[in-house]
Amino acid sequence: MRDVLPVLGRWYAAGAPFGLATVVEVSRSAPRDPGAAMAVGPDDEVVGSVSGGCVEGAVFELAREVVAEGEARLETFGYSDEDAFAVGLTCGGELTLLVRPVTPELDPAFGDVAASVAAAEPVTVATVTGGPARRGATLAVWPDRVAGGLGTPGLDVAVTADARGELALGATGLRHYGPQGQRREDTVEVFLQSFAPPPRMLVFGAIDYAAAVARIGAFLGYRVTVCDARPVFATPRRFPADVEVVVAWPHRYLAGTDTDERTVICVLTHDPKFDVPLLTEALRRPAAYIGAMGSRRTHEDRAGRLKEAGFTERELARLRSPVGLDLGARTPEEVAVSVAAEIVALRWGGSGAPLTTTRGAVHPPRPSAGSAR
């Protein structure tokens, strides 16, 4: 959804109705997570994807129908021998989609939501998917305000409280309520989709490897900052346009920067006078991933210095060093792929092994609330 919102915002601002399909529930080996979206707009233009190609043709027709009818629909797609190559999921999973028409009249807050996401302002959108409330009704919830409504004041109050809790976790998923927001009832189903600011990637050391890691970090959806104390290397022209470049001593910059459980820290300085003070700071704060570049000899020396600084073996176990998975990488771009692969594997609990050597579902069960995106 985050990726297609710029286009949807333009359609919305122009007053052009469009059909929006959102994945609200998945099971087994479904190809996309809840929150994945596809929209059909003016002149049958399509943006986004809900299944990687399996059911997009059927969703295209559904989106056109809901725009013509003005009513939202809930549809489930799963594997079947008869329909697998028509409208089924060939991967064997199952996904449920809410397909709804979007216009300024039906969703007055959509433009504000799109603007907030573009500005990296946190917002959660609650949408009724089933029950006695109007399917497709939306309530946008910011930390300090709300817009829209789900049909009853009690339901709005209960959903607002939950939406702010989910927003703090960056979580997305279904919740159940009574018609007046009763928490012990489950007659109304509401999909909460959180748009927390993108997670941060902090890359220290403005070398060629940093440029490649920054580029792939931005591709993965991180807000990337590159920091180096040497102004001759830390110049914006050496990095992608959407990457922030800071000239500062790495450990001092990190000490003044907020991190959380989604933050990725890549230490590529490869110099004890930079990386030991920096890792001393990094290992004392929340982060999803802390990786440091260097040979095994460099790692041994660095680990010894950190132990002298008072870190235990358990604390040092957070450090991914040498950084990256064993892909045989040589070039900066290949090393960046190995680093990104390790970050993704750690995030989702992957083994890093070739899929040909593993068993079970290709897409493992999704983590519960509070995942990294």
Automatic annotation (TrEMBL):
Lineage: Bacteria, Bacillati, Actinomycetota, Actinomycetes, Kitasatosporales
This protein's name: XshC-Cox1 family protein
Every XdhC Rossmann domain range: 201-343
Domain XdhC- CoxI: 11-78, 117-178
Provenance organism: Streptomyces tendae
Alphabetical list of Pfam families matching this protein: XdhC_C, XdhC_CoxI
Coiled coil: none
Region ranges (Disordered): 354-373
InterPro entries, per database record: MoCofactor_Util/Proc (IPR052698), XdhC_CoxI (IPR003777), XdhC_Rossmann_dom (IPR027051)
